Fold these 4 entries.
Entry 1:
Amino acid sequence: MTPSPTPGRAHGPAATRRLARTLYASAFCDEFVLLYPVYALLFSDTGLSVWQMASLFALWSLTGVLLEVPSGVWADAVSRRLLLILGPLLTATGFALWVLVPSYGAFALGFVLWGAGGALGSGALEALVYDELERTGAAGQYARLMGRARALGIAATMTAMGLAGPVFAWGGYDAVGAASVLTCLAAAVVATRFPEHRTPSAGGESWTATLRAGLVEARTDRSVRGALLLVPAVTAVWGALDEYTPLLALDTGVAPGTVPWLLLVIWAGATGGSLLAGAAERLPAGGFAVLLTGSALALAVGALAGTPAALVLVALAFGGFQLATVLADVRLQRRIDDSGRATLTSVAGLGTELGNLATYGAYAAVATHTGHGTAFAVSAVPYLLTALLLAGAARGAVRAASDVRGG
């Protein structure tokens, strides 16, 4: 007798389209924040010193580090959609504090709320999307959907950069802040449209059990552990480098007004990398190593050349790293169990956060003595090392398969 399809699979295409639309809208709202390009100016105009601003950024990062894993465990134990709704509301509250009562204390509290909001969504989003796709038999579309979502997020950031100037000229920090708060509220509304069919258990005991089960899976399953480590290895360095791309562009000798146009070139490369995720979904370990090697060499050569035209190579490198970031997430989602999916995704996110902090420190040490071009080139080294490890693993897998056939 032929089994009848489950309700989820029967409505698979329609459910997948709805999920995709919600994911794309969420990705755009999350990054369409007009405060991004001007909040440092707000801090400066309020009278904050450089060290005070640095302490705010450190507080932001520390909040993310401390809450990354607990929020993932909470998402698995309670509700992933709930966290995706709460996250933008916390961020909106923080942005409102910045423009209503601008002061060091308000900025600090705002960064804590922003860091907490980001941590709530990290892990929960990937886990929810993958599980819903798997429920309808469409897990193979995860790479394509997430790649497009990342591309839309980048497009939203670039659009916000373009609109921030005119809106600021019209209404100052109040207008830019109000627009950012409204966008966050829109993101929370969009998150209510995410489907969630899993039935998590609640309670303190299940929370600790969820964390323990996730960590045991990572410790005992070699493939899970490898996929878990690959995410920060691919994501952390270039995720920190993007903060310094304006300085790299300025070092090519162009006028400050030309820098935004060069940044558009670089981020167009990252957008292209996201859009290739679906086509490159089945890239083997050897191909992944080639991707990282090519991207690392393009980054080093483009940065050391010191010319505006050479930044096209940096754009290609960012495209490769963005593609690798999406593919690393795909590999992780395929290897972990659905009950602890958000937990282990958040563990990978914690590794990325720590890698970002290490990259900031290393970059500052190198750039202070040698300049931004050299610092970017040195930042390519971790990718070459990761590529070597992947290539070695690929050769080992080929030898093992050959031995099995020979035996």
Entry 2:
Amino acid sequence: MYFCSQIIKYHYAMIQIPIESMNLMMLNVGYATHHADWNWQKVSSPFIRIFYIMEGEAMLHLPDKDVRLKPGYMYIIPAFVIHSYECHGVFKLYYIHMYEGFKNEVGMQETFELPTEVWAGNSVKRLFEYVSTQHPDAMLPGPDPKSYDTSAQTSDYVKRYMNMALWEKMELRGAMLIIMSHFIREAKPRIWTSDERMKRVLKHIHEHIADEIDLTELAGVATVTKTYFIQLFKQEFAQTPVQYINRKKVERAQLLLFTSDCSVKEVAYKLGFSDHSYFIRLFRKMAGITPQEYRRQLKL
């Protein structure tokens, strides 16, 4: 088992992630047994899912690959990633859902290429067992994501966590950091992390995600010409600055739709869109459904 201090001190060369930026909050934890009934399609949530497999096998279908889930390993599904499950027999696992909430920092998923699968062993099994035993009220109400992946349910989970005693929050935070440390240990730094210009640019984007962000402004942050900045950004991130900004705005919109009662128009204005019709089109292009449909699904 790895101690919390290891993840605090963990770094790659010039890269360090402040522990304060890992604003993790536990929503759910528990143990589940399935009998060929873990078969959910196109699941997507604004929280991180981590599984520790105890027995049996299943398939996890991600946008870019299919992963066979095996006993003794842990698997992570980042927030907002659309995925599906497939199970044809007995399948037993521990699970934990972590919510990062609203944050403007460049997080670990931006800084590192996290592995989907890591070997965990008995130490992690004991940790999951302990946390699950200590928090039986944090178990999911049912196996179907529609039974728990709703704004009302998540609001209740957040309130439950916030009402915990300080020592309980500290204990849970330590457990979550230990679990995450297994993935960080195997992670690879993204190429841009060695480029101070790109670090400044991403920091600026995250801090001003609610504003209208101008490319000339970002080029100034990087201290290069606008044309070269666009080329450099695309070379480092395999997408244009506008595509990256729009993706981050849509992710923040999903959080707002999930956690607030703001209208779609208000969400658009809060994220720097002067034309909410354009925002709706962009949201649908990136999320596959309109903001209204997304919110409707959350309230089912």
Entry 3:
Amino acid sequence: MSVEQILKAAESRVDEIEVCVGHGDAISAELKRKQIEIGTRSEGSGLVIRIIKDGRIGISSTDNQESWKKCLDAAISSAKFSDAVDWKGLPKPVDLPKESLAFDADIKADPALAKDLIDRMLQGSETWPAEVTGGGVSLSCSSHLIANSSGLWYEARDTHVSLSLEMIADQSTGFEYDSTWNLKAVKPEFVGEQAAFYAAKGKDGKEIETGTYDIILAPTALSSLLDATFVPALSGRNVHTGRSYFAGKMGEEVMDPRFSLIDDPFDHRGIGNCYWDGEGTPVQKTAFIDKGVLTSFAYDLKTAYRYGMQPTGHGVRTGMNGAPGIGNHNLILNGPVMDVMTDDAIYIHDIVGAHTANPMSGDFSVELAGPFRVKNGTLDTPIKTGMLSGNVFEMLKHIEGCSADTRTLGSLILPATRFSGVTIVGRV
């Protein structure tokens, strides 16, 4: 099979065609206590064909690239069942840099590298008295190509490494993880030490009274809330179908005016770094919220064309099995920096149940994970249990400040963030 063959075969049958080809090589190891219980190695390829005929879009995918003819036939057939849109064309090629922005040649699907990372993570876990219950490491290398009938032909490579560790001390548990495309940036010792810290310190947790508190959300906790509510609200599709809190609010102040929410696909800290999106549209730095004001939504080609908007380069592929969806690359919260630990507060390392938050209203009620009282600038007394409740959109209008340090969590780059006047439900 060659991509040229597919493009040539479709010339007389469709108006336009897009071909995506990907290949991946990955290794993973899972821990049971301190022993590697399961190790897997996988290698595979994928092909996705999308066609446009009379404004109707058809798509098909296969993991057997030699069956491309059947895949092309299936894509053409599926278009007959789709609604026509005012299609304005696939992207034409532009002169973009050839380098891959999220590739590290030192990351390989190598068992020796996986074991070294696990050993370093376990070494870090010995800092505090707790037992390992599980965890793991994964390493992957991938390449992908996108070409279309307008002459576009882009190729890139990506790497990824992720670590996680779960620990327990009595009935108290601790969990930490890390992920990056850059081997020099991964922190296995940190993962081990933090998981052990929250397990060991949490066993002496005290009750908290129900009330209103100043809180500090660690990046792990804040990312869970934003992923469940804020990120979907920025989707152009959700906005135009009335499923977004931000529908009808363009140009309004929706966040603390000292802060901005920017998608920067060129930020070296991120794992969504790229020059073009999953459809070949050139990406750019996009301020969704600029100094508190809602200024943009995210669009892929289909949604932009359907609603008469301009594509924004936010067509994102999560695999080689279908059409791209609307997403973001590296969503960054920017604003004034402060020492968020200076004054007393409740520090929340993570939360449980963010998926139950209402994405339309922003209302949430989640369980605290790894909460501590902050006293004299440090984590002081652990809190046994509690529920955090409120509204994400209202909270982000009242940010006290953010830490200088950030963490990359999926497609989000976030600081620890301090809020005032938030309800915690504890002992009644």
Entry 4:
Amino acid sequence: MLDSYFKITARGSTVAREVRGGVVTFFTMAYIVALNPLIIGLAKDGDGKFLGGDGSHPNLAMIAAATALIAGVLTILMGVVANFPLALATGLGLNTFVAVGIASKMTWADAMGLIVLEGLIITVLVLTGFRTAVFRAVPTQLKIAISVGIGLFIALIGLVDSGFVRRTGSGPVPVTLGDGGTLVGWPIIVFAFGLFLTVALMVKKVKGALLIGIACATVAAVAIESAFKIGPNFIAPDKVNPKGWGLNVPTIPTKVVASPDFGLLGHFNLFGSFGKITAVSAILIVFTLLLADFFDTMGTMTAIGHEAGLVDRDGNVPDAGRILLVDSIAAAAGGAAGISSNTSYIESASGVGEGARTGLASVVTGLCFLLTTFLAPLVAVIPYEAATPALVIVGFLMMTQIKSIDWEDLGIAIPAFLTIILMPFTYSISVGIGAGFVSHVVIRIVQGRRKELHPLLLLISGLFMVYFLTSPINAWLS
């Protein structure tokens, strides 16, 4: 039954590979259950209240429970409806924008209402076929460039989250090696151990290399923390332990099971924001969320499709409409649950690297998230440093597609180059895609090859110009 429904054999996979891939994807993105509460749970809204409870104090457990629940339900939906190895959870970057740029101007319920509104609009765009049509209007080689750029982006995420690369905070160079140019602390050793172990297992063609690497690195981290009591990287807002663990401190939990509180569900006010800020400001916020969500997911879907070998010769993903529909519903569901927009995660590529090719992997990932609502203390054992080697390896796997780009055609080569480098340099998939689209359109017009440009690509490039100029436009209108 599983084989028939998910087309496991037809896609050259096995149930065991799908299960392994689903578990690996979960391990590489489980951090969101702990991180999302820290981002939106410690920020106050325009009324000076925290999200959850009575608003008088942070309620991180409630946010964590809702984060895991919605991620689990939507990821299972992606597997069952779209049969694609793609997991969803609260979007990083979007949640920071919500906490800092939106909720600070209104109540949390009002801010979540804008998220729901954006999700409903993008769902309509999918149902009308517009979102899928835009995806098909993009040249094949630009889709490959998007995939490669995301590969570099995900590798940088792994290096930054592990502490191997860190922000300098001053000077002309924004990032540096380790702490001030030096690798320090046991967590870095755990990262290096996990990375080299995974590479060795891959070279030996051992099945489950990424999963084994994460598990062994976690065991090593727990042993090191037990012996040396290293503690977290961030001790207080103004105090940092450069030799500490990045997020989760890998200690053996005193309890494994905890009862979740889902009281945050339904915490939104659909049009409440229009009474707190001007209609123009609200519309610009929704437009910004819409464009970021629209193209982040398109890029992620393209990258996963290429890595899994699930694209046709034009670079299109079969049943893209179903994938985009579930993702659009996820955006609205995240707002309705009070935890910010949910979106597709590029960390799903780690599961594909482990062999996942079908939606069964997503079902496994989703079930792991649902278990996390009760097993949050156990998930908190896995530190960044144990999970991030998988992201670096996946970045390498996705980088190998670069050979398919025609570097002799400047109309493709320059946009591909900008797409690839700007994703990691700006820490944004949307910026890379936008720069690639706009530069491709400009170069083709200069070359006198305007007829090669799809009308939808011209439209989207114009919208991206508005996106890039949102701040001065907003200031001018104000």
